[in-house]
Amino acid sequence: MHHVKYKRSPLRRLLGLLLFHSPRATVSGREIIGYDAFPICENCHHNVYGQSDRPNSVHYKKVWKQLGGLDNHNVPSLTWRLRFKFWFWVIVLRTGRFLFSLFRRKKK
Question: How many domains does the chain have?
Answer without folding.
Answer: 1
